[in-house]
Amino acid sequence: MNRQTHEDQLLASGSALTADPEAQPRPVVSIADVNKSYGTGSHRVVALEGVTLDVDRGEFVCLLGASGCGKSTLLNLVAGLDRPTSGTVTVDAAHTGLMFQEAALFPWLTVRGNVELACKLAGSGRVERRARAQELLEMVHLGDFAKRRPHELSGGMRQRVALARALAQDADVLLMDEPFGALDAMTRDQMHDELEALWSATGKTVIFVTHNVREAVRLGDCVVLMATRPGRVAAVYNVSIPRPRRIDSAEVATLAATITDQLRLEAGHGRRD
Asked: Which residue from 169, 221, 232, 252 could staple onto 97, CB 3.0 to 4.6 Å apart?
């Protein structure tokens, strides 16, 4: 998330204001005044209104808000699965990878076969994709389960496979739509650790959708709070808590309480509209 203007950065570094603006890194995802509507006339529903957001390369951004605030709609626009009614969405990356709340693994394939399929779609040859799939399974601590079928795994393990499959897409930007929402608290906490370690190791840009305030603060470099009716950016919170973080730490709880207060305020506005 861009935290300073170009002039602020130049002043902070002591550089002249005539420095080359092209030297500034471009955001990997740029969303400019985006509106998204469905239907027409009296049946028209405004899902997003005036959403503007920049995500820097390598940043971990959490989109937070109540159900129906347009988080998933925005993610679909970034993924290219839908188009805005107006405004622009620019993604400066060759590929985006997707991970959803349901693992959606192919039951007739082995664990490794599910990951290999993603490698194949990314253009890898037979030998290369088998080695890559096994490497990714080792990264998510499932190397010994490569020959198992999805139904033989727990819910958390299936999500680990889904994470490996998302990484196999060789995407610069990883889009995650409430991927841990159906997991129990202990498994979710473990997945947070896994995801943070993989993100640190790979340097990928992550946009993570959640309605869990503590999860957003636990994971994100910044938390984008979205208000509903229609969906819009209500506030952006930069998270300066050092990593690694614990979801039950006092620092996470304090910021989560502040964001929750704002979330309740936005919800109250929505009920009065």
From this structure: 169
Tens digit of each residue's pLDDT, the chain (273 residues) = 654 433 343 333 344 444 455 556 789 999 999 999 998 887 889 999 999 999 999 999 999 998 889 999 999 999 999 999 999 999 998 888 888 888 888 999 999 999 999 888 877 788 888 899 999 999 888 999 999 999 999 988 998 899 888 888 888 999 999 998 888 888 889 889 989 998 998 899 999 999 999 999 999 999 999 998 899 999 999 999 999 999 999 999 999 999 999 988 887 765 544
| Strand boundaries in 68-141, DSSP class E | 86-91, 96-99
Task: Please answer whether residues 246 and 193 qualify as being in contact, where contact means their C-beta atoms are separated by less than 8 angstroms.
Answer: no
CA distance 204 to 132: 17
182 and 258 in a common domain:
yes
Q: Is residue 44 one of the residues assigned to a domain?
A: yes
**Residue type for position 229:** R
Phi-psi map region of 105: left, alpha, beta (phi>0 left; psi -120 to 50 alpha): beta
State the pTM of this model. 0.85
Q: How far apart are the first and last CA of the chain?
A: 30
DSSP codes, 160-226: HHHHHHHHHT--SEEEEESTTTTS-HHHHHHHHHHHHHHHHHH--EEEEEES-HHHHHHH-SEEEEE
Q: Tokens in use for 35? A: 């509106």
Whether 103 and 158 have beta carbons less than 8 Å apart is answered as yes
Q: Has residue 13 been placed in a domain? A: no
